[in-house]
C-alpha cells in the first residue's frame, strides 16, 4: 500500500498524519513515480502552518527523487525507468509519499553521478543556490557577501559556490557548533548572532564599508541588520522568512541607508523556462558530480517521523540538508 503524509487543517507539526492512499494510473501529461528519497524544506512548514494557503485536506512536500514507473499520454520528456528528481511549488505538492502521480513537466533527469538521496537533499536548495550565484548579481572575484543561516541547507551550498567564484563570505549562525560547520564549507568569517552584534562584526570585517550583497533567509529578525550591513548601493536579497515576514516599510528607508537595492526572488521564476532550468540544473549537477560542491545530508528521517522532522527544522536543530528515506 502506498503511504503519504497528509494534513486536514493548518497548524503545528502535530497536524501531519501518515496514511494509506490509493494511487491510480497517470493521466495525460502525468507520470506515476516511485520515490527513493524525499527532501525536507523550510517551505514545507509554510504550507503546513497556513502561510502558503492551499485547499484542505492536502499532501505536503515539494521535492523528491525516484524512478518513473508509468507514463501517461503525451509525456515525452521522461520514460519508464528514468531516474528523476523534481522541485516546484503547487504543481509538485505531495512529495511526502512512497509513490505518487505528478505532472511530467517538473521532472529533471538525474545523471548517474548523482545519487537519489543527494538529489532529494539538493534539488530545491541547489537550484536556489544556482540562481542566487548565477542570476541575481554579476559577481566578481573579491566581492563580499553576508550569508545568513550559513549552516543551513542553502547556506552551505551558497558558501561553497561563492568560494568557487572567488568571493569573500561572512556567514551568520546561532551556535559555535554551526559556526564550525559553516567554516568547513567555505565561510571566511562567521558571526555567532547569539553573542555577537552582526552589524558591528560586518563593519569591522569590511573596514567600515559593508558587503556587496546580503542573502537573508531569516526575514523579520535580521532585516534591519541586513540593510545596515550593506555597502552604499548594495543589494539585499530576501530569500526566506524563517523568523516571520518582513513588516511593511517605506522605500525611502533604502535611500536613507545608502541607495540600496532590494529583491525578493522565488525559485519558480528562475526555473519556469525549461531551457533556463536545464542550464541551472546542468551546472549544479556538474559541480556536485565532480565533487566541487559537497552536499551534506545531516538528518535522515522516515515518513512516519514527519512530525519530529518539522519540530527539529523549526527549532533550528538541523544543519545542512535533511531527507526522508523511503
TrEMBL record:
The keyword NADP applies. Residues 11-324 form the Enoyl reductase (ER) domain. CDD domains: QOR2 (cd05286). InterPro entries: ADH-like_C, ADH-like_N, ER, GroES-like_sf, NAD(P)-bd_dom_sf, QOR-like, Quin_OxRdtase/zeta-crystal_CS. It comes from the Bacteria. SMART domains: PKS_ER. SUPFAM superfamilies: GroES-like (SSF50129), NAD(P)-binding Rossmann-fold domains (SSF51735). Keywords: NADP, Oxidoreductase. This is Quinone oxidoreductase. It comes from Microbulbifer elongatus.
Amino acid at each position: 500500500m502506498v503511504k503519504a503524509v497528509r494534513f486536514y487543517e493548518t497548524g503545528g507539526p502535530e497536524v501531519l498524519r501518515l496514511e494509506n492512499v490509493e494511487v491510480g494510473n497517470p493521466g495525460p501529461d502525468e507520470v506515476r513515480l516511485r520515490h527513493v528519497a524525499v527532501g525536507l524544506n523550510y517551505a514545507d512548514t509554510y504550507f503546513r502552518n497556513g502561510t502558503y494557503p492551499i485547499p484542505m485536506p492536502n499532501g505536503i512536500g515539494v521535492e523528491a527523487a525516484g524512478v518513473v514507473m508509468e507514463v501517461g499520454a503525451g509525456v515525452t520528456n521522461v520514460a519508464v525507468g528514468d531516474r528523476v528528481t523534481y522541485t516546484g511549488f503547487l504543481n509538485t505538492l505531495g512529495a511526502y509519499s512512497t509513490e505518487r502521480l505528478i505532472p511530467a513537466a517538473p521532472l529533471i533527469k538525474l545523471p548517474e553521478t548523482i545519487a537519489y538521496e543527494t538529489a532529494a537533499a539538493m534539488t530545491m536548495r541547489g537550484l536556489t543556490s544556482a540562481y542566487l550565484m548565477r542570476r541575481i548579481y554579476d559577481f566578481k572575484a573579491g566581492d563580499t557577501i553576508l550569508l545568513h543561516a550559513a549552516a543551513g541547507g542553502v547556506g552551505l551550498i551558497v558558501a561553497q559556490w561563492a568560494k568557487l567564484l572567488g568571493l569573500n563570505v561572512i556567514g551568520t549562525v546561532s551556535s559555535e557548533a554551526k559556526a564550525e560547520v559553516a567554516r568547513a564549507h567555505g565561510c571566511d568569517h562567521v558571526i555567532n548572532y547569539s553573542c555577537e552584534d552582526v552589524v558591528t562584526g560586518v563593519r569591522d570585517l569590511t573596514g567600515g564599508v559593508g558587503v556587496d550583497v546580503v542573502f537573508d533567509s531569516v526575514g523579520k529578525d535580521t532585516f534591519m541588520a541586513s540593510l545596515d550591513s550593506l555597502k552604499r548601493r548594495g543589494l539585499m536579497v530576501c530569500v526566506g522568512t524563517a523568523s516571520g515576514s518582513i513588516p511593511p516599510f517605506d522605500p525611502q528607508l533604502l535611500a536613507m541607508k545608502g541607495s540600496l537595492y532590494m529583491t525578493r526572488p522565488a525559485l519558480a521564476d528562475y526555473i519556469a523556462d525549461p531551457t533556463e532550468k536545464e542550464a541551472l540544473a546542468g551546472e549544479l549537477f556538474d559541480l556536485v558530480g565532480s565533487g566541487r560542491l559537497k552536499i551534506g545530508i545531516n538528518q535522515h528521517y522516515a515518513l512516519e517521523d514527519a512530525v519530529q522532522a518539522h519540530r527539529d527544522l523549526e527549532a533550528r536543530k538541523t544543519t545542512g540538508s535533511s531527507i526522508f528515506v523511503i
